[in-house]
Amino acid sequence: MTPSETPGLPDSVERLQAEVERLRSALVAQEHASRRQYDMLDALFVRSTAAISVNRISDGAFVDVNRRWERLTGYSWQEAMGRTTLDLGFWSSKEARDTAFGHLAQSDLPPHQEVPFTTRDGRKLLLLMTGTRLNLSGVPHAVVYLNDITEHKAAQATLLESEARFRSLTHLSSDWFWEQDAEFRFVRFDGAVAGKLGVSGSRGLGLTRWDVGAANMSEADWEAHRALLESHAEFRELELCDIDAEGKVFWMSISGAPIFDTQGRFQGYRGVGRNITGRKLAEEKIERLAFFDVLTGLPNRRLLIDRLQQALVLAGRDKSVGALLFIDLDNFKDLNDTRGHDVGDLLLRDVAQRLVACVRQADTVARLGGDEFVVLLHNLERDPVLAMAHVEQVGKKVIASLNQMYLLGDVEHHSTPSIGITLFGQQEQTVDELLKQADLAMYEAKAAGRNTLRFFDPAMQALVAQRTALEQDLRQGLQRRELVVYYQPVVDAQGGMVGAEALVRWQHPQRGMVSPSAFISVAEQTGLILSLGSWVLETACRQLARWSEDPATAGLTIAVNVSARQFRHPDFVDQVAATLLATRANPLNLKLELTESLLLSDADDAVRKMTELRLSGLKFSLDDFGTGYSSLSYLKRLPLEQLKIDQSFVRDVLTDPNDAAIARTVLALGQSLGLGVVAEGVETDGQRDFLLQNGCTLFQGYLFGRPVPVEALPFTGQGQRRSESGV
Are 61 and 84 in contact (CB under 8 A)? Predict the structure, then answer.
């Protein structure tokens, strides 16, 4: 059947065409309406002279901003999108933001708010913020309008400041008011404070200010003040000290201006008084805190330096001699650690009192901090020899005084000082130089056994300079990879090499090969030993890993010395474990050599760390056994594998019966405890034979080889012993 034969089809097509036309017209109308809305939005939003943003009410996130907003804040549209008003610093807190947007959740017109804001380029603005609520796709949004009111507020502040200045000039408002006649006599007091201070009534009325008097004013001061009044000049903040009605000292600040009648004739003065007692007390307290030690009441470093500078000037002018005594209490830390800081403070106060009693009233006793004190003696004899004798006498007096027993609460305590002394006045010196010299001399006193005094010697300075230069060189040497690891063989009874000790050497570009004895102590003192020790351990472990690849060397061990500072580091165990993991070295072939002094400082901590590492297979050797304070009680607690007889006993083992006895004892002790024993410093066949006869099976020394680079080690065992003349 054809369409023409289908009943009602033409009517359906016509209706369909009409509906399509209607829809097309509706779409055109909608497009026009959308265009008009866009144009309106463009006019109201995009091209608006106001800074406008659209934000989600829930979190303040930016949905859109106009160009004016970008220029005002310094942030671009791209930078704002996805960030919140809190992110950009419009609000001081989330609570402030929620409060602001909470108004929009309840009302279309929230109250105006002044919001401080910092632009992207750092400008501080004060913005006036308002807005209205808008639902976009069912989600509540806020259309926020910002106006810059920074200049307006600044103008307001300037106006208020101007008004306040005007009021102060006209009224001089303060605590109380006063008036004087043309003869400068008080005729009026007003204010409750005036009566409290005792400046009202019969005491003041009819009298001049100089009649009333002030404790801090001299006759010359009053004459100057009277001359100022007679010139009819305004005066401000004249500070006077007096006694109040309760008999307490108080301070007041007086300001005044002359009074003239309409014809310009002088009538007197009118002014205000202000109680500044609190401020003066605060200033005194601040000054005391700034220049005096809180604990002892002695001058602090700041005041000492000031007085020392003055003493240097006077000594240079008068050609006199002065002295600086640097006093440090021996083992003060032990008192704090065992008895507590409160008891330590009692000692410091007592020491301060004793030091003051040892010197003249004109001398200065200061506390630098901790247990460090300084005594400044000035205007001594001009003859340096006599001055030195005088200072030495004072120093001995100080030692004798500080040696006396202290009663600290219920604790009896004995303390000793170490004193460093330097003289000044004979040449140009600075404060810093003197303090350093006295400090160096104090350390010399420490080194001399403590509880003594030492005068500064220029040789001390040279030694410190040398040590400082060495430290700098060493620091650079570590960076430039100038340090190398040498290995000294450890052999068995047949002379076959069973392992080696890793020993660090410094190949200095100018000094040549530097011995460890020259730089290890510096490394310990400066903390460089941590990085140095870590590097030596890593180098030795990498060598072990290389040896493990060859069956001929796979069983060799390497011993690495561990410094006290390394071992006491909290991360020592983890660092060793990490090194073994990184180098893939077999821990069964690694020995760590520790010293007795290291273990004695904290035996419990040592046992814990050694036990943890021992679980991985790593072994420990006790180096230089017998040279320290050997104790069987701690020796049996330590998870040791080996003892090393110090070379000082081996050297004279054939000639000194005591050394021979010690060597036999160590060997017997090792056998009884199941520990291996290595004899160090074996240089002759006789030494080796003696040790072998007494049970020693492992040897180390020049007889078998000096420390050498790894490639020079004798791996073949017998026949590699070197004669004494050939090393």
Answer: yes
